[in-house]
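## Example record

The block below lists the input lines for one assembly entry, exactly as stored, with component labels intact.
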Amino acid sequence: MSEQLVYAMEVILNGLMAGVLYALVALGFVLIFKASGIFNYAQGVMALFAAMTLVGIMNGQVPFSHLINAIFGSHITQFGWQVPAVIAILLTMAVMVLLAWCVQQFVMRHLVNQEPIILFMATIGLAYFLEGVADLMWGSEIKSLDVGLPQGINLWIDETTLNIFGYGFFIDNLDIVATIVAALLVIALVAFSQYTKQGRAMRAVADDHQAALSVGISLNFIWVMVWSVAGFVALVAGIMWGTKSGVQFSLSLIALKALPVLMLGGFTSIPGAIVGGLIIGVGEKLFEFAIGPLVGGATENWFAYVLALIFLVFRPQGLFGEKIIERV
Amino acid sequence: MFYREAGDFKVSYSQDSQTFPIRFDRYRYYVVLAVAFGVVPFLINDYWANAILLPFLIYAIAAIGLNILTGYCGQVSLGTGGFMAVGAYACYKLMTAFPDVSMFIHVLLAGGITAVVGVLFGLPSLRIKGFYLAVATLAAQFFLVWLFNRVPWFYNYSASGQINSPERDVFGIIITGPNAPAWATYLFCLIFLSICALIARNLTRGTVGRTWMAIRDMDIAAEIIGVNPLKAKLSAFAVSSFFVGISGALFFAIYLGAVEVGEVFGIQKSFLVLFMVIIGGLGSIFGSFAGAAFLVLLPVVLKVVGADMLGWPTDIVAHLQLVIVGALIILFLILEPHGLAQLWRVAKEKLRLWPFPH
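Predicted structure tokens for the full assembly:
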């Protein structure tokens, strides 16, 4: 087997792994969009917020310590304890639920019946707000996150491929974990929306707000729940990305990475988010591998968008999106 | 009392179709122009020009441009930063290639080039709508910034990858570079803003503007009554990009002087201009001014209050600024989805009847 082909195979494998991580973020978007028709730009910042909160709780940081110190001239930063990862994750989840409730109570409830674009703008405002709050709460410096996930090269794959192709593939353990977690998450979400009472209520709300309301489903509750689930997905994505590349501002930019995934897969489809993520992940890694050196590299910044753009021109609703029917 | 149309009779068609039909509006407009052109240049100093007036003028042009596309034609664009970069780099290439040609022509040509690029990236809007289009315009944003970063021809093979605006003059007065007097740069931008606002105002109340609004309100219905969506959408993209290109050229050549594309014209810039349009009011020229003024003044005010008066560290002030901007956007959308322009309209309605509401 030629060397180029083996390299390409490694690139594809890595692309698939990256695609899973993109899909993880995209899932959060799809959930909220399906249930409330809101395109939640703040999803990436929610992942950042969740990861920062998790790190802060684990290290026993005092929230808003910088602000308090600036106002009162004090010098508190630490509670002086460490919280185990599992408890910290549970506490962070509680914070995300609280956040979901606040978003519903103070923002979305007042914007019912507004045009989708207004709601979209509101979530951009929310993104700014959350980013500022996260920085004020925990400080804006880069933090490392370690919840005990395995990291580093996977030796077994390295050895096996070395025996077969004569070249060891470099696959990060973390990426493998992320893939498994994403798969489990998707199964859990599908099961939740298909087989539980709340999941059915959620789908009913997604189909028709008013009809759902008239059979006695509480819209408020469903929306808080949906935002909580999105918060949970954000937390998982935050843990994965945060472990991979540190908890920092650029974490919120993964939302931008998830957008072309959504366009490709369609805004309303959970399988679409997965397939779209994989296509984008593999596509951009392959493109960078094959064409990147010819045009100066760093094509990953825009390739996904251009791919999605070209794709949309031929199929405006995405791969698995619902067909757009327009009436006058 | 003073703001009403009673007694303001129109006796000819040209009077009936003038830009400001109410006499008070017209006089106010003349007074504002007179102050801006005749008084401010004598009072201006470097701090005011660089911190407030220049950014305001330049962002106002960009906001008018985006407002035409998003507010009047209903096509949400997140590519404003990328189009501003096109204007800036086009201006830079023209300035260095033709040093003897007037800056006016360079800036206008830069706008024209941006318009062409804008139409190119506007083509998908014929197939894609709504969110899909908003995300598709991000393709323009990322691709253009990458292009200007990676292709050395655009920054004349300079070692730093930056572009620096060389010293150029208009009628013998230096307007770019560090030696330019504040009043000259101010007047140069003001002239462009006045012309752009005038063009935008008249375009939006004419045939072109009405077809845009028809497309915005319901594109299928507009198509059925005979509006050509191809023409309407692409003309909106062209005009909008023309303005945005001019503002990008001014932003680079007059205001900053040196630009690193990823930093200055990144996605944050797209959002900033979009916020100006939303806070100011979608579909309103006055709103573009109000939104630009608001978002230019807010950081300055916060910095003065937070860092200078209360003595807080600048990073906390910067974070607080994010919180406040985010909260304000949400608050505006909840309380007044039509922005500052709508507040002004309501105030005018009140003024018409004041002080005798019955």
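Residues 26-265 of chain B form one domain. The longest helix of chain B spans residues 229-256.
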